[in-house]
Amino acid sequence: MLQRFTSHPPDHPEEWESTAVYIRGQLKERVLGESPKPPPVVAKFGTGALVDRMPTVKLQLQPDPGPANLTLPVLMQTKPAIEGRQPACILLHLEGQTQALQHPLAKNLRDRKWLILAPNLRATGDWKSPGDAIRDAADHNSAEHALWIGRPLLGQWVYEVTFLLDWLVIQPGVDGRRIAVAGIGPAGIVALCVAGLQDSRVTAAAAIGAPVTFVTEEAYGSFMPMGLLAPGILGVADIPQLAACIAPRKLAITEGRTPQGKLVRLKELQAAFAFTRGIYRLYKNESRFFLKEEVRMDDVVDAF
User: Against a cut of 0.70, is the pTM above it?
Assistant: First the structure.
């Protein structure tokens, strides 16, 4: 299926929609691993804190109960005294939630009165295991252990963000018409997967500084976490096809990188995502696909 559409998108939206259903199904059933049945969504609020000199609310969810009793810590930030329902963005960073909130996109979201939720995904940030790294693979052992239980880290991360989304969409102060998922660096791949699998609740997505492809003739190096390399994913979709599953909703991609972390210049970036643009063109919604080499973060928020 991937080989069929690598060079050229299909000619009709209906053909692509059946392909997108196939991709989503294969990701869920074969690539991302079997996730547990989600428990009832209950959040525990902790004490407030200052992160990057901003008042921050601590939230804790338990998406994966069982013997491990794993929790999902989340930091929430917003401007005070917001009236009415506000848009919300789940902001992802594989170095942890504090790094996410220190990124320039977070400041621009706050200035535009967005609610920001930064989760600390398992095996990242404060949840990194001691001695996890082997050579350039900072998450080697965690990624390996995840494969042993049949749940690649990419699948676990997607599950955790989806569980956070379950809680977010039922909050009375959130505008369900404007919910975004954005990933910084390699976490952009997680954001694309979450948005691609959620065909209604996520209204916009962004990948900032993310790899533009899994395919490379060189060693990945330290930029690409092992946890993103779910076995069999290239038999289903490369990153441009994952991004295309978000169409016709809003999508922003900027500062694209090679799998080794080198910035991809505009001409190559456009070539890499020609397939994705072609799908948006099928829907006559090309203006919803924002693709730039480097931009100000307020432009990304505008794209939402």
Answer: yes
> Is the separation of the CB atoms in 175 and 139 below 8 Å?
no
Q: What's the CATH number where 144 sits? A: 3.40.50.1820
**Predicted local confidence at residue 2, as pLDDT:** 47
Task: State the total domains in the chain.
Answer: 1
Contacts of 193 (CB under 8 A, 6+ apart): 27, 32, 154, 158, 242
Phi, psi of 254 (to 5 degrees): -150, 160
Q: 218: how many CB neighbours lie within 10 A of its CB?
A: 8
- Distance separating alpha carbons of residues 142 and 121, to the nearest angstrom: 12
Q: Is residue 60 a contact partner of residue 41, using CB atoms and an 8 Å limit?
A: no
CB under 8 A, 24+ apart: contacts of 279-282: 279/9, 279/16, 279/244, 279/247, 280/244, 280/247, 280/248, 280/251, 282/9, 282/10, 282/12, 282/13, 282/16, 282/247
Residue 253 in contact with residue 294, Cβ under 8 Å?
no
What token pair was written down for 176?
Answer: 């369900």
Q: Which residues pair with 118 in a beta bridge?
A: 75
Instruction: Determine the structural domain holding residue 21 and report its residue range.
Output: 2-303
Rg for the chain (alpha carbons), in Å? Answer: 18
For position 3, what pLDDT does the model report?
47
pLDDT digits over 126-185, tens only? 777 777 767 877 878 887 887 888 899 999 999 999 999 999 999 999 999 999 999 999
* pLDDT at residue number 1: 45
